[in-house]
Amino acid sequence: MTLFPSRVLVQEQVEKRKSAGFASMNRRLYEYVRLKPIHGKIGTDYWILDRLPGLNQYHRHFEIPRPATPEFLESVRADPEVRYILTGEDAFPPPVLVWMSQHGFRSIFEEQGFRFVELPVR
Known about the structure:
Elements (H helix, E strand, L loop, with lengths): L5 H12 L5 H13 L5 E4 L14 E3 L8 H9 L3 E7 L5 H9 L3 E6 L2 E5 L4
Parallel strand pairs: 1-2, 1-3
Antiparallel strand pairs: 3-5, 4-5
């Protein structure tokens, strides 16, 4: 049996945890945060976010309706800590996406059936 220094084992476990849930979507989130630091919370029903090292600090759980409604989106926008939404694309049918674009919501990326959206500046 080979013994690894504890820091190596810990780092291996951290890297494995980054792939929990939807690995390619997680990679997109990590890449986004690396390139553009996040200021605020991510409103999401993707509970895995709460378990992702380094990203869990941004987690804010929301039950996101299918489809999301303008009233719901305005209530999320009214939360002073939340700056982003991450949820399944099925929450955003074309009429909702049109409303969002007209009101300053910005899609950042789509990955593995999820959409990551930046809320308009208040």
